[in-house]
C-alpha cells in the first residue's frame, strides 16, 4: 500500500525501452551523481537504450563498476571523477568531455547534497551551507557554463535539473541549507530558458518528492513514509528525456504552489507551535 501511495503522489513515469531508445540512442548523455541511487538507475537505463553515457561522481570505484556493467550489457559508458565542490576539477572534467566527445547532447544535473539540521544546531557549521551551495548550485552552474557553448553552437540539446517539490512549497524548518541551494539552481535554470530556447535547447525541471535512497536514509522517519524507489525516480527522468517538457511534477504540486502565499503564514505558525513545545 505504501508503494502504491508513493507512486500515486509522484510525477508520471515512463520507462518503455523502445521509446527511450528513440530519444537517446547515439546521444552523449552526462549524468552527475551517477555512482548511487537515482543517477545509477538512470545510467543503467540510458546504457540499455543506446546512449553514450558519461558517468560523473566522486566515487570512482563505483563508477567503474557501473560502467563495466553497462558495457557488459552492450552499452557504452565512460567515467569521470567529479567533485562539484572543486572548481578546478569541474573545469578539468568539462575540458576532457569537450576534447573526447565534442560536448554533450543531454546533461542531467542529478548530483545533490541534502542536510536536515536545525538552524540552532548549525550555528557553528557554516560549512553545511557552503557544501550544499557548491554541490546543488554553484558546481552545476560552473559545469553547465563550460559545456553550454557547444550546445549553443549545435543549436540543440537538453538540460535536466533533478529538483525537489520543496522548492515550490512554503519554507520548512531544518531544511534551510538544502532548499535554499536547490531553489537557487531552479531559478538559475528558469532565468536561462528564454535565452536558450531560440537555440533549440530544452530546459526541464523535474520536481521529485521523497525517494528512498542513500541520501534520504539518515532521516529515519522517512523509512515508513510513501515514496519512490531509485528506479521509479529514474523512470520519471526517462519521461522527461522523452517528452522534453519545461517541468515535470506531481499532480498536486501545482495547486500547492499557487496556494503557497496563503499557506506560508499558517505553516510558520504551526511550526512555531511545534517547536515551542
Protein architecture, described:
The protein is an alpha/beta fold and 277 residues long. The protein has a single domain, classed as NAD(P)-binding Rossmann-like Domain (Rossmann fold, 3-Layer(aba) Sandwich). It is built from nine helices and nine strands. The chain has helices at residues 2-8, 17-24, 37-48, 60-72, 87-101, 126-154, 176-196, 230-243, 253-276, and strands spanning 28-32, 52-57, 76-81, 106-109, 157-164, 201-208, 211-212, 228-229, 247-248. The strands form two sheets. It has a seven-stranded parallel beta sheet with strand order 3-2-1-4-5-6-9, sandwiched between helices. Strands 7-8 form a two-stranded parallel ribbon. α7 (176-196) links the parallel β5 (157-164) and β6. The relative contact order is 0.15.
